[in-house]
Amino acid sequence: MTIKEGTIVSHEGAQQWGAGKVLAVTPFMVTIRFSDGKDRKIAASHFGTLHSADASLYVPPPVAAPEPARSAARKSTKVKKLL
């Protein structure tokens, strides 16, 4: 199997990760985003554990919505009573 960017794969030893999409390939490792939401780096020595998977099995993790900007907390001003 040729591993290249965009390929959908599964890892034979970790089926619980689900299918993954190859994000980057170097001569030494491949970076894959799996359906469980985690990016994992697999060493070239373990490329044999990766197998082609049907593209319909890859479920990309949901994109987190950006958090709304928080307004600066108002500081309460205490008025001292003069006796």
Q: What does this protein look like?
A:
- The chain has about 80 residues and is mainly beta.
- It has a domain at about 10-55: SH3 type barrels (Roll), CATH 2.30.30.
- Helix content is about 0%, strand content about 30%.
- It has no helices and five strands.
- It has strands at about 10, 20-25, 30-35, 40-45, 50.
- The protein has a five-stranded antiparallel sheet, with no helix packed on it.
- A hairpin with a 4-residue loop joins strand 3 (about 30-35) and strand 4 (about 40-45).
- The radius of gyration is 23 Å and the shape is elongated.
- The relative contact order is 0.23.
- The model has no long low-confidence stretch (mean pLDDT about 85).
Number of strands: 5
Q: How are strands sequenced across the largest beta sheet?
A: 4-3-2-1-5
Oligomer: single chain
The whole-angstrom Rg is: 23 Å
What is the 3D shape?
A: elongated
Proportion of strand residues: 25-35%
How far apart, in Å, are the first and last alpha carbons?
A: 86 Å
Structural class of the helices, strands and pairings?
mainly beta
Give the H and E element order: EEEEE
Mean pLDDT score:
86
CATH topology grouping of the domain at 8-54: SH3 type barrels
Biggest sheet descriptor = 5 strands, antiparallel
User: From the 3D coordinates, which CATH architecture of the domain at 8-54 would you assign?
Assistant: Roll
Number of helices: 0
